[in-house]
Amino acid sequence: MSSTSDNALKTESTRLLKDKVAKYGVTAGGIMVLCALLLIFFYLLYIVKPVFNAAEIESVTNIDELTQIYASVAVEEQNEIAFALTEKGLVDFYALTGNKAGQLILSEKIPAVSEITAFDASAPQKGLYGYINQQSELLIIKPDFRVTFPDDKRQLLPYISYPFGESTISLEADSLFTINKFSFATNEESIGLIHQHSDSKIYFTKLEGEENMFSEEIEWTANSTELTQISGNILHTLVSPDLSRAFIITTNQLYVFNTRDSSDVSLLYNVNLIANLNSNIQVTAANLLAGANSVIVGFSNGVLEQWFETNSDQGRDFVKVRQFELSGDAKGSSVQAIYPEFYRRTFLAATESGHINLFHTTSEAELWQGKLADGKIDSLAFSPRSNAVISIANNTLNISKVENEHPEVTWSGLWQEVWYEGYPEADYVWQSSSASDDFESKFSLVPISFGTLKAAMYAMLFAVPIGLSAAIYTAYFMAPNVRKFVKPTVEIMEALPTVILGFLAGLWLAPVIEDHLPGVVLLLILLPITIILTAFAWHNLPAKIKNTVPQGWDSIILLPVVVIVSYMAFSLSPLVEEWLFDGNTRLYITNELGINFDQRNSLIVGIAMGFAVIPTIFSIAEDAVFSVPKTLSNGSLALGATQWQTLVKVVLLTASPGIFSAVMMGLGRAVGETMIVLMATGNTPIMDWSIFEGMRTLSANIAVEMPESEVGSSHYRILFLAAFVLFIFTFVVNTIAEFVRQRLREKYSSL
Question: Of 212, 247, 251, 217, whose CA–CA distance to 231 is shortest?
């Protein structure tokens, strides 16, 4: 007896130990899962946070008591050497780092130019500078740098290059009057100039070079057109880098000329810039933004406006898109100068007192405001990498460090409509990259978030009715012998790789549905009707015939019905297409109904992704229905309720928490699906509920663009932000689902 008692105590203690191990193991597992979720959450925040950091500009180096009065200043890419140019053809190079920091390391006089009457700098990204002499001859130079490695030490050597030759180029202008103001732009073989003479006449000249086959020298041909439409005092002249547009800004007018054909220069637009402003307000500054599509105009009241050419209801037009206003100590001050970045739509606006404001046009944001110098800034330029600003004021050269990695990203830019250059109106657009340096990044998350919801909605429309119906029938009506084959078969479908489903959907299903679209529509109409009629006919058959089929095997009868109806629908497709759609359904939808039709569209995604979601919904819902205690259903039947009444009033209500969980799990699977929507849609970020057009989802967008994004770039971090949005969305949906499930469980637990 004592031995038996000891064995019982030993077994009990072992059981208690196992219970404790299981308890703490499950608790530890749950805590680890929670920690993993928190780590994912905070890691995504860690990657995303820098895009919302404020810009900073901080002075780091000063070179005092400059010996020359410089007209322009710039800095090379590594911020190691600055160079400044005078209006008389002198170029000085200053070291900014190393042992010679602050010293003049090279000074060169442009030898081929004398009696200079005009000087100008090109667009920042070109890095070119032009001089015109009293004989109306042009010389273009470029301060450049070569890298050498004497004694295995890197050394940067400055020099002057001549992209269009060391000889001056004659503009063939009127010799009686000198050119005292000009602006220019270049491409590989042409130079475009707007130049104003001492008699106040203004011309556009296009210089075209052709290499002499014998001497191998470039011979230049000048084609000039006088711009007689200008009235008023000319403040600024600008030429677009592609030489297609010339801009002339007076104290109140903006003139835009078409200069694509130098022999036919025409005035495109004449805009009154102060039409809706106070009569005392004048234009004080103007410049082209990077990309040369937008003109930024500054006014005497501290307001800046962005203008660009776009389509309108009346055709092409030059419109004001947005405006900015100086803030802080510069508020209300006159805009003295505007300095754009090399490649981004960021610019600095400076006042006479040395205050500057940093803006970005696309994000419509003021990024920074402060003061770089006491007094007027004579010249200023961004570094090529936009990580520094160099300026000259009060005979002092100043280098300031700039931290402004993500100016194009703001919360409003991500979630609100933005008016991009060349677009007819503000819109939600995702277009993250381009082959051109002039590209304006478009980072709206609205189209891809919309695409995620659209794909999930169509998938759920397909999967929920089929998955729940199949689950209820399998768990409640189907014979056990059939159920043991059907349930594992449906569940094993979940193991199918989604890449295979996407591949089949894109390369097989999409062309089939396009070729037999009327048949698909017929199938959607005829199949439910036929099933209902078959069920009605079966219900009215004599009991003797119905008893020949074992109870729970009734669904087998529908298999040949589904096959026959499907075959008939696809067989009738050509006849219906010829009868109703003039022999081509796609052209009819596109031309007659005005609906865009993409072969890989939402219908394909709904079917393919719905097919992938069905096993998830089926498995969880079937288990929930099957787990309802038989005592409840048997009690209901014993009280006289029919099977359908028992199903609706007892079984489904009791199983409702599990059914709701099944639907929400299916929704989570649909929202996070990647490969099917990547391969079975056009993958275009458009916002349209049309079933015949595709979409781009958050997950597919991340999969496509993450490999090509530069680590740490705005694009890279916004992709992580998209992942964060997806994470938050699924977390919120699952939280709501759990809350609703618990409420349903509490409500119907008493049944």
Answer: 251
User: Could you give the CA distance from residue 128 to residue 620 in angstroms, rounded to a whole number?
Assistant: 69
CB burial of residue 317 (10 Å; 0-12, 13-18, 19+): middle
- CA geometry: angle 18, 19, 22, nearest 5 deg: 85
Q: What is the mean pLDDT of the chain?
A: 87
Length of the chain: 751
What would the two tokens of residue 288 be? 């082209």
pLDDT bucket at 464, cuts 50 / 70 / 90 = very high
Give the C-alpha separation, 347 to 543, whole Å. 86
So what's the pLDDT on residue 543? 78
Report whether 390 contacts 74 (CB < 8 A): yes
Q: Is residue 213 within 8 Å of 204, Cβ to Cβ?
A: no
Give the integer Cα–Cα distance in Å for 298 and 388. Answer: 23
Residue 576, pLDDT > 70, answer yes
The pLDDT, as a whole number, for residue 390 is: 93
Q: What is the mean pLDDT of residues 619-642?
A: 86
Tokens of 540: 């009215």
Q: How much is the average pLDDT of 576-586?
A: 84
327: left (phi over 0), alpha (psi -120 to 50) or beta: beta
Distance (Å, rounded) from C-alpha 602 to C-alpha 682?
9
Q: Angle at CA 547, nearest 5°, toward 544 and 550? A: 165
SS3 457: helix
Distances (CA, A) of 50 to 403, 521, 746: 11, 50, 45
Q: What top-level class would CATH report for the domain 445-750?
A: mainly alpha
Q: Which of 233-237, 361-365, 633-637 has the lowest mean pLDDT?
A: 633-637
Residue indicated by tokens 């609906």: 595
Q: Which residues are CB-neighbours of 156 under 8 A, at least 6 positions away?
A: 76, 78, 80, 81, 145, 146, 147
- Is the separation of the CB atoms in 617 and 625 below 8 Å? no
- Closest C-alpha to 359, from 390, 335, 393, 377: 335
pLDDT at 341: 92
CA dist., res. 364 & res. 229, Å (int): 33
d(CA 660, CA 464): 11
- Domain borders along the chain are 445-750
pLDDT score of 666 more than 70: yes
**125-176 pLDDT per residue, tens:** 899 999 998 888 899 999 999 998 888 888 899 999 999 888 888 887 666 7
The tens digit of pLDDT for each residue in 687-735 reads 888 888 888 999 999 998 998 888 888 899 999 999 999 998 888 888 8
Q: d(Cα 284, Cα 304) in Å, to the nearest integer? A: 10
Neighbours of 369 (CB within 10 A): 19
**Radius of gyration (C-alpha) of the chain in whole angstroms:** 37
From first CA to last CA, the distance across the chain in angstroms is 47
| Mean pLDDT of the region 578-604 | 84
Helix (H, G, I), strand (E, B) or coil at 298: strand
Ranking 79-93, 247-261, 551-565 by mean pLDDT, the lowest is 551-565
Q: Which two tokens stand for residue 734?
A: 């699952």
Closest listed residue to residue 718, CA positions, set 41, 40, 44, 37: 44
Task: Residue 86: count other Cβ atoms within 10 Å of its Cβ.
Answer: 17
Backbone angles phi, psi at 30, to 5 degrees: -65, -40
Confidence of residue 542 (pLDDT cuts 50, 70, 90): confident
**Residue appearing with tokens 């170029």:** 91
Q: Using CA atoms, how far apart are residues 142 and 161, in angstroms rounded to an integer? A: 5
Please name the residues in contact with 442: beta carbons below 8 A apart, sequence gap of 6 or more.
362, 418, 420, 429, 430, 431, 432
414, 725 Cβ separation under 8 angstroms: no
Give the model's pLDDT for residue 174: 66
